[in-house]
Predict the structure.
Amino acid sequence: MPTLANHLSGFTESVIRMMTRIAQQTQAVNLAQGFPDFDPPAELIAAAHRALDGDYHQYAITWGAKNFRDALANKISNCTKLECDPDRHLVVTCGSTEAMLASMLSVCNPGDKVIVFSPFYENYGADAILSGAKPIFVHLEPPDWHFDRDELRQAFAQGVKAIVLCNPSNPTGRVFTRSELEYILQLAEEYDAFVITDEVYEHIVYVPHKHTYLSSLPGATARVIMCGSLSKTYSITGWRLGWVFARPEVIDGVRKVHDFLTVGAAAPLQQAAVTALELPDSYYAELQKAYTAKRSIFLDYLRRAGLKFTEPEGAYYVLIDISALGFAHDQQCAEWMCRSVGVAGVPGSSFFPEPRFDQLRFHFAKRESTLHAAGERLLELRHKI
Ligand code: GLN
């Protein structure tokens, strides 16, 4: 029998997406896979109808339709205060998922080392392996999920090609400070490495925390490859629209990889999403307000249920400490939580490289009514803790 590629044994099926399937089977409230259960802005849905009635049924330009890139470049330069030339600095991808993989495939040679902060969003480990690179994990220390500067320096000193940074961070909710970002950039300069950022939660940040774009730090554009997405900002995770923003020589490489991976993102959805990118500043203020309210509702239930956690500073995830619930393995706890409590989360072990089974991740990108329904069920845990 022919055998499958060796690199497949380096990672498992996505646990996040597996938990979505278990949530469906058990009819648990799905707080596992991070996606909203509310609609995107109405004007965006109307724009999608118009796009389907228009002449957008064939491939767009492989690196992104011109008017989509124009609108995206405008938004990126408004946010980062950097020059973003739609013809030289951008590739439009199928979500940040493809943006991250295409970036890694563009910079890594077999055997290269790539730093990944741990806990980490599960795709980064697989991205490194598929690119032939070896992930080097640097710990984020609870309760506030900071990194140790010496540990990070030692990791760089092993001779790394790139560091992956998710900011605001999934699953920890950490928003890295300007000083931390300056230190990361300083090390990347000293050891001549790329910094590949995943900034899909750029607009989901809680007061008083602020998102700093690493690429906007002085001198950063030479080595920062910024990946982003429309998924979370406009509540359209299924549209699969993302991008890579980097200097032209890097973009030339990423465009080649992207072209052979997917040819391009969905043409009619790129047309429709121009409407999203042109929304006024008030849209982002409202988004932040809505997520602040969701966070407050959900965390209040967790507190009342007696669960321990660190309040997220950004993104829409919270890692909870499940050690008091008495399970040997977090997967057992996650399945019990679906079947007996009726709420689905993701076992924390899928975010850690070392065996660690005391965390479960919930997300709160849901309608307030869904969060109340999940919260009421979680209150049952008071009797178990
Ligand atoms: N980013 C989301 C999460 O961490 C969705 C993951 C996915 O399935 N692509 O849950």
